[in-house]
Structures are given as structure tokens and as C-alpha cells.
Design a protein that fits this description.
By secondary structure, the chain is of the alpha/beta class. It contains 17 helices and 29 strands. Helix 8 packs antiparallel against helix 13 and helix 15 runs parallel beside helix 16. Bound molecules: alpha-D-galactopyranose and zinc ion. Zinc ion binds next to helix 6.
């Protein structure tokens, strides 16, 4: 898996901004002693360093960076070199105001913050290429350079005239004629017909916000324009350093405070990077969910990222202790840093990198956790935690070249669908909760130690025994045909309420539910009941009663078998869970939003029926706070066993294993301390 990177070890390190300390060479000297102590082997340099690299237009200063390269190489370290475009120097905005962003109300923004440049600006595009060319020429041949890190956390949008022009071109390319645009936008509604392409404008609170087609196209355009900007940035790097791979750090969405990140279609972006990297900031020990629940959500985010390229990925950023931007910036409990770091390795990551290696002394992130804090001490709890993870990663060296165990189960996750659904003027904005629904379905498998891929509608379905396709509101006919083929040739699918309502143009399917879906599911869709938050109904499944809330779909049977029925309301006794044999496969429809108790029973049935259990699990009778993930190569399986509970847990091994971290033999009963990780391999 690691052939992409010229490094045969786990990467341990992170963002380092020595340019903040150039007046204090002693600090930098000491840093490098401390980094070695903490087993830091990788340095991400140059993020936000533009003003130091090019203090005046065309005047470059690389000596300080040369020095850091030398120091890293003396320690046999790796360098991930960032292009500095995530924040531009002040002089550039003063001289070329065109590069500043314009907001959706048409106001030009002032210089400030970061991640705020116009993606269309020819000047900014030229400037980024110039500095990147300088960096590639100067550092491309350095033996420590293993990876380019493009910009930082791409995101946001710009509504300036340059971007409007680009959007118009994009629209014209997509729709070809104004007539076609008008038809597909249903623009006779409210007299919104377009007469010329010049009339196309991005969504704005001062103009259109309610055209779902426009909103969705704008989102798609923003992804395309960001990728186009990125492709422009990397041109000199591909040309000068064709053998150095390229990544850009994606954002994770940070459970529990936010869903999966929503700005950009990462499934699309992933095709343009050589290796996935992302920034992971779960808020461990928050006050409204258990550590185990948050671990499940974090596992899912890791699986999202792993699945983007079906390969190893890098944790480009994580915090060694706390962040400075959660609503409450809690430090990690003893053992948690190791737990969270190794969870990522367990899911297939080959790097644990931090923001940041050295804390800044002032400005907005001065209180953010760091390996070396302003105390400059190697005696902090954080420093010791980080050193321990460094040691763990060395002990896990045999795992570097392994793969994550191929899942038999996949959940479909689609960006267009997410955007379309969140914009649907129907249902309830308070309860749509697409991502929460994916989490609910995923959690059953995670708790049963069954691995799951999170796939796009473009991915191959054939490796999977079971596909879960929740709330697929905007579904293309191409995807319907794909699942038709998948199920008829022996695959099994689970669909839910709110499926197959609109096409990718955001036009309703006419004449009832699309025929392909009717055939697959043996149903025809009738209507959706949106419940108020305090309202409930229930479903009766062979005498077991399960509460349902938020949404209840009604279907007419067209050959499907009903397994469970609604209990109350005008649809009492209508189908709430159905099964349809279609070709060699099966299609299940869960018509209503249930709690996890129902999903447990339902998926337990499918796990048994379709043989999804993982027979390799080395321990018996584990409770739901213990989780097992597997990495493997031809010779060996490595079981990452984690106790996410806040108290001790005893597990029972069914054979003789060895813990690669402690070196202990694992035989029969083994007691795990809170948050402990064991990496077991056969003795
Ligand atoms: C993001 C950024 C970093 C830093 C961290 C703080 O992930 O990429 O530059 O601001 O957040 O957690
Ligand atoms: Zn712009």
C-alpha cells in the first residue's frame, strides 16, 4: 500500500512553522532535539508561509527553509512540502485586489483570515504557479521530500465577476442551449425564464436562493472550479517533480459537532490526488455521547476517507491534546491520544500527523494543542503521549504494508444527494439528517466488527454482498440500472424512505416511482408522512414492536413480501418493511425512520442470512465497547482491538496471540484498561 510514498514507515509528525521562530534559533535547535525524542519522523512545511518565502513580489527568501530541510535530513526525516496558497501575503491583496473573494451578496472582502482567495482569478493562479515552480526547482531533488501538500483545506466560494463568468461558461457547457436550461430548470415557474447566458448568476440572498437546480449546479460548479484551481496549481509540480506524489488535506467533518464535510464533492476531488489525506478532530469525551458512540462516528469518517481511493490514506492533521475551536476545548484523558491515533491506523491510515509540532506564541491558534507547547518542556502529558504513539508506530512496523480487510458491506453516500436533500423544500429541515441516518446504519456493523466501505454511485458494486442505500432522494436512472443489474445477479440491497424522488436535474420522476425501482423493490411509492418531533408511530415485526419517528413512507405492494406493518394512524397495517426477491438477489425496503433497536434486529437477520459475520475475530463474547478492525497481508492478520469504554473490560482470546504493542502473550482472559489498544497477531 505504501508504494505511493517513498517511505516504508508509518509517518509521525505534522505541521511545523519554524518561520515563526526565525528570531529565536535556540527554539528551533531545541525543537529538533525534542522531535527526535518524540519519534517525530515527518515534517509538513510551508503551510501559510508565503509572506516569508516571498516577502516582496518576485523577491524570494528560501534560506530559512533550506536550513530546515538540512536539519530534517540530518535526522533522517521525511518532508511533506506544502504550497503556500492557503493564505496569501498582504502585499499581494493590496496590489491585486482581484484575488480577494466576493461574498454571495456581492461585497468584496478585505484582506484577512486565510483560505479566502478567488479560485478564478488569473492573477492568483499565475502567482501560485510561480511560487510553486520556485519550490519545485529548489526542493524537488531533496531526498527527504516525499509528498506535495497542495494549499490547505480547500473550501468556500467566491461570487465575483470572474467567478460569475466561469459559472456561466460551466452552465453553457452543461446545458448547451438556453432552451434546454429553461426546460431543465423548470424556469417558467415564477417567470424565471433565462433569455441569455449573461443572465445566469450564482445563488444569492439578494437574488435567487430557492431554485434547487441552481443551488445544486452552483455547488457542483464550486467543486469543479476548486479542482480546476488545484489542477492549475499542480502543473509546475507535475512537470518538475513527476515522481513526487500529490495530496491536499480534506476536512473530516468533526463528530459530534458537524456532519461529513459539505463544501466540496470529495468523491470527485479524490480522482485528482495521488493519495488521500484528511484532518481529523473528534471531540473525545464530550458531554452528550459515550466515547464508544463517538468512536463509531470517527470510524465511519475514516472509512469514508479510506474508501475514496480504496487505499491507504494519511491523517494529515489531528491534535496531540485539544483544539481551540470546539465549543469546549477539552484535553484528552490519559490513554485517549493513543486510542484515537491507533484507531486511524486500524482503519488503514499510514500516518498520524498533528497540527502542530510547535505551538505558536501569539495569534489565533496560540492555545491550540501542540507536541511542543509554550512550556518548551518534554515533561508535559501531551509530549509523553505523543512519544508513546511514536513508539507504537515503530512497534507496528510490520503492519505498514498491509491492507484493510476487504468489506462485504457497502453504504452508498452521494454528495449530490446530500446537497439536494438538504435543500428539498419538503420534509423537515430539522429532521432530514442524512448523515445521522448513515451513522445509524453503519453503527450496527461497527458494533458487530464487520467492516464497511462507503462508496459513491460510480463505484463498482460487485465486490459486495450487501449494499445499503439510505435516503437516496436524488437518484439517477443510471444508478437505478446499476442496482438492477447488481441485485438481479445475486447482490442484496437495502433501501429506505425518501428514495428515488427526483432525477439529477432536480426534476420529479413522473408517472409514479421509476419503473426500475418498482421492479427491484417490488413496490410502488405512494407518499411520505413527515411527523412532528414529538409524534411517533410503531411497527410490528412478528410481534416485536419498534418505535418509528420523523418519516414514514407508504408503498403499494407489487410483488414484495411484507415483513412488518405500521401499527397506528390511517396507514395502520400498511407495509413498513418489505422483502423482494429479484433475480438472484434480494431488495429490502425500510419504509420509516426507526431507532437502532430495529436496525439491530434487521441487520442481525441479514448478517446471518448472507453470512456477513467476520469469522476471523480472535476473541469471544465481546461487549459493544470493544471494537476490532483488521489489517492484513498474505502472511498475517493484525487485529486492532480497542476498549472504548471508560472502564476496564475483560476479553477472552480463542487461541494464542501476541500483543505487538506490549509484547505480552494473549491467552484466554485478558483485561483491557480504559481506552487501551491491543494489536494482536497469531503467536
Ligand atoms: C485546520 C487547519 C489547520 C489548523 C487546524 C486547527 O485543520 O488546516 O491549519 O487551523 O485546523 O485545528
Ligand atoms: Zn471570484
Amino acid at each position: 500500500m505504501t508504494h505511493i510514498l517513498n517511505s516504508s514507515r508509518f509517518l509521525h509528525g505534522g505541521d511545523y512553522n519554524p518561520e515563526q521562530w526565525l528570531d529565536n534559533p535556540d527554539i528551533i535547535d531545541r525543537d529538533f532535539i525534542l522531535f527526535q525524542q518524540a519519534k517525530i519522523n515527518t515534517f509538513t512545511l510551508g503551510i501559510f508561509s508565503w509572506a516569508k518565502l516571498e516577502p516582496e513580489e518576485g523577491v524570494y527568501d528560501f534560506e530559512w527553509l533550506d536550513d530546515i530541510f538540512d536539519r530534517v535530513e540530518k535526522q533522517n526525516g521525511n518532508i511533506i512540502l506544502a504550497t503556500p496558497s492557503g493564505a496569501r501575503p498582504r502585499w499581494m491583496s493590496t496590489k491585486y485586489p482581484e484575488i480577494l473573494r466576493t461574498n454571495e451578496e456581492g461585497q468584496k472582502l478585505l484582506f484577512g483570515e486565510r483560505h479566502n482567495h478567488c479560485f478564478s482569478s488569473p492573477i492568483y493562479r499565475k502567482k501560485t504557479q510561480e511560487i510553486n515552480r520556485q519550490l519545485a526547482n529548489r526542493y524537488g531533488h531533496r531526498k527527504s521530500l516525499i509528498l506535495w501538500h497542495i494549499s490547505n483545506e480547500f473550501g468556500g466560494e467566491c461570487h465575483c465577476e470572474l467567478c460569475q463568468t466561469a459559472f456561466r461558461r460551466w452552465m453553457q457547457h452543461k446545458y448547451k442551449t438556453i432552451d434546454n436550461l429553461n426546460k431543465l430548470y423548470w424556469s417558467s415557474f415564477w417567470s424565471h425564464q433565462y433569455n441569455t447566458w449573461e443572465e445566469v448568476h450564482s445563488p444569492s440572498p439578494l437574488g435567487d436562493t430557492t431554485s434547487m437546480s441552481l443551488n445544486l449546479d452552483w455547488k457542483r460548479f464550486v467543486t469543479d472550479q476548486t479542482i480546476d484551481f488545484y489542477e492549475n496549481e499542480i502543473k509546475p509540480l507535475r512537470e518538475i517533480t513527476p515522481n513526487i506524489p500529490i495530496t491536499t488535506n480534506f476536512m473530516g467533518g468533526n463528530p459530534p459537532y458537524s456532519d461529513v464535510h459539505q463544501d466540496l464533492d470529495y468523491q470527485k476531488f479524490a480522482k485528482h490526488v495521488d493519495i488521500i489525506s484528511w484532518d481529523s478532530y473528534p471531540n473525545w469525551s464530550n458531554d452528550y455521547e459515550s466515547t464508544t458512540e463517538l468512536a463509531m462516528k470517527t470510524a465511519l469518517m475514516n472509512d469514508v476517507m479510506r474508501s475514496l481511493k480504496q487505499n491507504t490514506y494519511l491523517i494529515m492533521e489531528s491534535t496531540p491534546s485539544q483544539v481551540n475551536w470546539h465549543p469546549f476545548n477539552k484535553s484528552k484523558r490519559p490513554g485517549m491520544h493513543e486510542m484515537g491515533s491507533l484507531q486511524q491506523i486500524a482503519h488503514g491510515a499510514n500516518a498520524v500527523l498533528y497540527f502542530q509540532l510547535h505551538q505558536s506564541r501569539g495569534s489565533s491558534e496560540m492555545f491550540h494543542g501542540a507536541v511542543v507547547t509554550n512550556s518548551l518542556s518534554d515533561q508535559t502529558r501531551t509530549f509523553k503521549d505523543v512519544s508513546k504513539v511514536g513508539k507504537n508506530l515503530e512497534e507496528l512496523q510490520p503492519v505498514v504494508d498491509t491492507e484493510y480487510q476487504q468489506p462485504k458491506v457497502a453504504i452508498v453516500f452521494d454528495y449530490d444527494n446530500m446537497w439536494a436533500l438538504s435543500d428539498a423544500k419538503n420534509y423537515s429541515d430539522e429532521t432530514k439528517n442524512y448523515w445521522g441516518t448513515i451513522q445509524d446504519h453503519y453503527s450496527v456493523f461497527w458494533h458487530n466488527n464487520i467492516s464497511v466501505d462507503i462508496i459513491s454511485t460510480e463505484d463498482d458494486l460487485s465486490p459486495y454482498t450487501l449494499i445499503i442505500d439510505p435516503m437516496h432522494f436524488m437518484m439517477s436512472q443510471t444508478f437505478m440500472a446499476k442496482i438492477e443489474k447488481y441485485v438481479s445477479s445475486g447482490g442484496h440491497i437495502v433501501g429506505t424512505y425518501m428514495t428515488g424522488i427526483v432525477d439529477p436535474n432536480y426534476l420529479a420522476y413522473m408517472g409514479g416511482w421509476p419503473e426500475t425501482l418498482q421492479n427491484i423493490y417490488g413496490l410502488s411509492y405512494v407518499e411520505t408522512d413527515t411527523l412532528y418531533p414529538t409524534q411517533n408511530n410503531a411497527i410490528n415485526w412478528e410481534g416485536d414492536f419498534f418505535n418509528i419517528h420523523n418519516y414514514a413512507d407508504l408503498y403499494e405492494l407489487k410483488g414484495a413480501k411484507q415483513l412488518a406493518l405500521y401499527v397506528d394512524d390511517f396507514y395502520a397495517d400498511a407495509a413498513a418493511l418489505t422483502e423482494n426477491n429479484f433475480g438472484a438477489g434480494t431488495a429490502f425496503m425500510i419504509s420509516a425512520r426507526t431507532n437502532r433497536d430495529f436496525l439491530n434486529k434487521f441487520y442481525q437477520m441479514l448478517i446471518n442470512k448472507f453470512d456477513l459475520y467476520n469469522i476471523d475475530i480472535p476473541v469471544e463474547d465481546i461487549n459493544e465497547n470493544i471494537n476490532i478492525q483488521i489489517r492484513q497481508d498474505d502472511a498475517q492478520k493484525y487485529f486492532f482491538i480497542t476498549n472504548y469504554d471508560d472502564s476496564e473490560q475483560t476479553i477472552v482470546f480463542n487461541d494464542n496471540y501476541i500483543d505487538m504493542l506490549s509484547g505480552n502473550s494473549l491467552i484466554n482472559n485478558v483485561t483491557m484498561s480504559p481506552y487501551q489498544v491491543i494489536v494482536a497477531r497469531k503467536a
